[in-house]
Amino acid sequence: MLLEINDIHVHYGKIAALKGISVEVDEGEIVTLIGANGAGKTTTLKTVSGLRPLSSGSIRFAGADISKMPGHKRVLAGIGQSPEGRGVFPGMTVEENLLMGAYARRGDFSQELAEVYELFPRLAERKSQAGGTMSGGEQQMLAIGRALMAKPKVLLLDEPSMGLAPKLVQQIFSIIVEINRRGTTVLLVEQNASQALQIAHRAYVLETGRVVKSAPAADLLDDPQVRAAYLGGGADAQVGTDTPAGGPAADASPSVAREVSEEAPLVAAPETVEEDDTPSSS
Amino acid sequence: MSGVASRRRGVGFSLDPLRDRWESAPGWARWVVYLLLIVGALLLPSQGIGSFMAPGESDWPTMLSDQIGIYVLLGLGLNVVVGMAGLLDLGYVAFYAVGGYTIAIFATKYHWSFWETLILAILTASLAGVLLGAPTLRLRGDYLAIVTLGFGEIVRVTANNLDYVNGPRGVQGIPHPPSLSEWTVAGTDIQPFKYGLLDSRPYYYLLVFLIVLAIIFVKRLEMSRVGRAWASIREDEDAAELMGVPTFKFKLAAFAIGAAIGGSGGVVFAAKQTSINPGSFTFMVSALVLAGVVLGGSGNIPGVIVGAFLLAWLPERFRGLSDYRMLIFGLALVAMMIFRPEGLWPSRQRKAELAEGTGGMGSMGAEVAGPGTAAEVTK
Fold first, then answer.
1. What ipTM did this prediction achieve?
2. pTM of the prediction?
3. Pairs of residues, one from chain A and one from chain B, whose beta carbons lie less than 8 Å apart
4. Domain around B126
């Protein structure tokens, strides 16, 4: 096993976010964690990359226990992450962002840089543009490309489809498959369960901090329970979610509603979401 | 909201053409400009400039050495913490005080020379930075600001209650720096290396020397791996950690370096005044220096110098308006923040960060569609 997460518990203050999650990722796989908001998907990824401390349990990577290793050292060990909300450095240009991805490494990065530009031709066109001025989809590409610059053994992707138009989601997912085909193991966290299950080899279903199901992704696609809860299964489920389409409800409701509402904000969504941040946080 | 954005663009003047010229300028041209700036700084205390800058009873060279020079040096130090690493420090005066009290104690009680205490103060101030930083740098944003604010007060209150440094009466009889040479600039009465009671100019020249040293040091750091690490921490701390930047270590380094520069300012201040007391190290100093950094363009060295200069000079220049000057000063600050929130002379990178909206504080949380979203879509 390349990455073994053994019964980890993580707390935010006194609130338990993860109540014993065990996940295994083998070399060359795409493994996905699906689940609703608050299930603990992002926390699991943050714990693997070292942004959250463990309360108990252990994480083993490439045979070594990394539970106590600080986050910045895990990058050199081979864990690369594209964080939730992309985490692109807004004031740096695209190229500077990518070079930050190789910060922990020494030497010549021109080959990796060329590879990232080949995977994402869009980034090559925008080399000298500030990261913060790009659209949501471009920022997602940049976040993934930046993580690849560290030459990770395993790539952790946190909601790469978040806030993107369906067409872009397709594109991002096909690039993830391509990255995996070139030899990088992928651990993917997604709310867009149907997309994630289509490209993943195996999947774990998370609910309120626990793994409730784990199986090959193809099996979960046909699993009636999973279909009902996460894939917007039967026709009546879709009819029921017609009304809250669009607007703020999209993020708060589980994936069933998301499937439908995703089409409502379409292209406008990524830009406006960012502008909306301005008054509150600056 | 987009209305606000376009208005901002309408009001602000852009320095981009100037910046492009500068970036494409050959190396020798830059050195000429640097030299001219230093010469200009050295000529600044002259009578001709002083009659405009400080008319009336106030002494321009004294204003330069006691106010402007000190504030510019402190501004450069705080800029490392706030502008480069993006850590909001509201207690920066603490390091200034540590520097001042270091020379007060070691010069009066142990008879160390000025230059020895200067080095020692730089070390003790950076040690104070590490001591403050080690437990508190796990906090972020507002929480860090509150803790540093507390630290600034702790240092002042401690000095106020410590009999060893005479409590509120402070320490008197701090010696001036020993004179380096009696040399007189030809044709004038200036003895730039003779530190006495009457002439403020030598202290100003000493400050110019420290400022130039600080600029070179900070600028070199900015262009190195350290500077890149600070920029990434400022823009998104979690993402920086994910890139393999040891964020805690670099934040601590920013605190220590900023503190060292502040400490050196405290030493010159104490040696010039020959006495210090806790009343010189109030929160007002932290607030003014921070205002200078933000007003000038946090993260951009020329901007910070301009900001600190204006903040130290304007209230002194308009002393004639007596009590109203602080009111006008406050209004000017508010107006600045409305019309040019990125500062008078921001760096290009900093401007892009502010435009993005996180203001460099980073946002890893989910982007949740808010009430404003629907309105934006319809436009």
1. 0.80
2. 0.83
3. 171
4. 70-286
